[in-house]
Design goal:
Strands 1-3-2-4-5 form a five-stranded mixed beta sheet, with helices on both faces. 47% of the residues lie in helices and 20% in strands. The protein contains six helices and five strands. The chain is of the alpha/beta class. The longest helix is centred in the middle third of the chain and has 16 residues. Keywords: Disulfide bond, Electron transport, Transport. Pfam families: Thioredoxin. InterPro entries: Thioredoxin-like_sf (IPR036249), Thioredoxin_CS (IPR017937), Thioredoxin_domain (IPR013766).
């Protein structure tokens, strides 16, 4: 038992809290690793999807991701989220197709099309309004 607790403590003290949160709340949050993932979780999604291009080393990304995850989880199925780490192999073409030049870059998809987007870490009110607008599309 002690080893298990010690292992969990080590993992949580050496891991970014936003990454832990996004791993725990994965019912509506998907990690995109390939064009097939993007097609399945974004283009063919039955509900609006927030696509977050991020990097593990990006400070604003670390601030934005838990906020987006929280809103998506509160939407309880009315929205999903797709996370794309720009440093992962296999997502290069998706990054080029979206003309991502800085992170975080966030795109909102509905019925396979981009309906909104923003770059950077906006104010909480902006994020809430962005998500509310997407929920109304459903």
């Amino acid at each position: 038992m002690f080893n298990l607790v010690k292992s969990i403590q080590t993992q949580t003290t050496h891991t970014n809290p936003s990454m832990i949160l996004s791993r725990l709340l994965s019912k509506y949050v998907h990690n995109i690793k390939s064009p097939k993932d993007f097609e399945k979780y974004v283009l063919k999604s039955k509900v609006p999807t927030i696509v977050d291009f991020y990097a593990k080393w990006c400070a604003p990304c670390k601030g934005l991701m838990p906020k987006l995850v929280k809103h998506v989880e509160k939407a309880d199925g009315k929205l999903t989220m797709a996370k794309i780490d720009i440093d992962d192999q296999g997502v290069e073409q998706t990054i080029v197709n979206h003309r991502v030049r800085s992170v975080p870059s966030v795109f909102a998809y509905h019925n396979g099309k981009i309906v909104d987007q923003f770059v950077g870490l906006p104010a909480n009110k902006f994020i809430a309004d962005f998500v509310d607008k997407l929920k109304k599309l459903n």
